[in-house]
Amino acid sequence: MPPVFAHGELRLYLLALLEDAPRHGYELITELSARFGGTYRPSAGTVYPRLARLEEEGLVRRADAGRKSPYVLTDVGRAELDARRDDLRRLEHTVAETVRARADELRADVRSTMRGLRAELAAAAQEVRVRPAPDTPPDPRRARSDVRRHEAEALVQRFRADVLADLRRADVTGAVGTLTVETVRTVLDGARAAIRATLP
Hints:
By secondary structure, the protein is mostly helical. It is built from seven helices and two strands.
């Protein structure tokens, strides 16, 4: 997944959040998470060093003496923010697009997980239906089949995870094109047909 903020953008966004009201570092982290609908939450190791740098540059200061007092925007920080209103508007638009994209990806992941869960539940129900009575001697052929089925399922899951990771890495640079989608469709259709041909 690509980074949420490009170079210097988080710095600008922190200034904008402090324009609304003085905030502690943890409040800024919480507000950022809220702005992204919970799809992104920066770590303390990301936010606090930037706040320290902003303080060094004179753009923010502590409201009171002491490490636990909230950060406030200084006049210098307000002037920088005023000079970069166009950049801030573009950044707000980018944030909105990022939230939509992350929400779409989260929904797709949830749908995929639910499909897998439904398939597992259906398989478990089928297994219960065909399970022999307790006094029936075990069927070695059925036991071997069960082991191989689990092995095949593990291979499918590993393949899926690897391909999804490759696609997401390529998407960072916008490299996923029509040819990739068509290749995935063709290969999966062929693989499904070949696998089914081995089954009775």
